[in-house]
Amino acid sequence: MRTQTVLTSPFEGQRPGTSGLRKKVRVFQQAHYLANFVQATFNAIGDFQGQTLVVGGDGRFYNREAIQIILKMAAANGFTRALVGQCGILSTPAASCIIRKYKAYGGLILSASHNAAGPDEDFGIKYNIGSGGPAPENVTEAIYDRTLDIERYLIVDADDVDLDHTGSFDLAGMQVEVIDAVADYAALMQSIFDFDAIRDLLASGFAMKFDAMHAVTGPYATAILEGTLGAAAGTVMNGEPKEDFGGGHPDPNLTYAHELVEIMYGDQAPAFGAASDGDGDRNMILGDHFFVTPSDSLAVLAANATLVPGYAGGIAGVARSMPTSAAADRVAESLGLDCYETPTGWKFFGNLMDAGKVTLCGEESFGTGSDHVREKDGLWAVLFWLNILAVRKESVADILVEHWQQFGRNYYSRHDYEGVDSAAATAVLQQVRDQFDSLPGTQLAGRMISTCDDFSYTDPVDGSVSSNQGVRVLFEDGSRMIFRLSGTGTSGATIRLYLESYEADSSKHGLDAQDALADMIAAAGAVSQLRELTGRDKPTVIT
Ligand code: G1P
Ligand code: ZN
Question: 11, CA 20 to 30 Å: which among 228, 274, 276, 490?
Answer without folding.
Answer: 276
